[in-house]
Amino acid sequence: MIIKEYRVINNCTRDEYQVAQLFAVAEASKEETGGGEGVEVIKNEPYENEKGKGQYTYKIYHLSSKVPAIIRALAPSGALELYEEAWNAYPHCTTVLTNGYMKENFKLITETMHVDNSRGEIQNALNISPDLLEKREVVIIDVANDPIDPKDYKKDQDPTLYHSEKTGRGPLKNNWIKSVEPVMTCYKLVTVEFKWFGVQNKVETFIQNTMQSLFTKFHRQLFCWTDGWFGMTIDDVRAWEDKTKQDLDESRAKPLAEETEA
């Protein structure tokens, strides 16, 4: 089991981030969906239990073209789908990813605490136990300066170039983490468990590296979409999610040829 805590510093307030995250998740899902693949939203509804209340979501990620061909050839039906359950009791959120084929042998848990006026300096924002602290590796994510895969680079999603007309924020230059206002940090504790003899450590390391890349790319987008989400309320963004679900269902149903012609 590999445990890492990613600390993502953002140029917004914690209240703003609650809306920004939901908006950016919806927008990013559109980029990954089409031709029978992508994100399928099964449930998005309020919940309340003994631990509290918030918003529950259940999604299926259809991924067959996103993995190497040899894995597609060998994997049985259902192995290339990931199931995501999320309990968003903001500012605390928990997300669990599983796979129907791997069952109890694969689990990816992300526990997040969102902290206002923080620059990634809090040593135990999630109040984890001493034994987990010993195993945890801390990774600071700088959305402006950390490298990303060249295929993921888009000029209009580059925080070092983006300037928000609505807020005046950006571009994020030099040692922006120490000086930018407003500021908040997402503390994300990611636990990966992949039980497969002979490849466990290699796969868990690969997954953690992938999560770091995903967090970096997503939060670059979130900042560069500031003028899209700034000023929205929670009700606004929930309506946006509903509209996006319809768009995702339609896009996923289209054959790739139709998308290419559009």
Automatic annotation (TrEMBL):
<feature type="domain" description="Phosphatidylinositol transfer protein N-terminal">
    <location>
        <begin position="1"/>
        <end position="246"/>
    </location>
</feature>
<dbReference type="GO" id="GO:0008525">
    <property type="term" value="F:phosphatidylcholine transporter activity"/>
</dbReference>
<dbReference type="Pfam" id="PF02121">
    <property type="entry name" value="IP_trans"/>
</dbReference>
<dbReference type="GO" id="GO:0031210">
    <property type="term" value="F:phosphatidylcholine binding"/>
</dbReference>
<protein>
    <submittedName>
        <fullName>1952_t:CDS:1</fullName>
    </submittedName>
</protein>
<dbReference type="InterPro" id="IPR023393">
    <property type="entry name" value="START-like_dom_sf"/>
</dbReference>
<dbReference type="InterPro" id="IPR001666">
    <property type="entry name" value="PI_transfer"/>
</dbReference>
<dbReference type="InterPro" id="IPR055261">
    <property type="entry name" value="PI_transfer_N"/>
</dbReference>
<dbReference type="GO" id="GO:0008526">
    <property type="term" value="F:phosphatidylinositol transfer activity"/>
</dbReference>
<dbReference type="GO" id="GO:0071944">
    <property type="term" value="C:cell periphery"/>
</dbReference>
<dbReference type="GO" id="GO:0035091">
    <property type="term" value="F:phosphatidylinositol binding"/>
</dbReference>
<dbReference type="GO" id="GO:0005737">
    <property type="term" value="C:cytoplasm"/>
</dbReference>
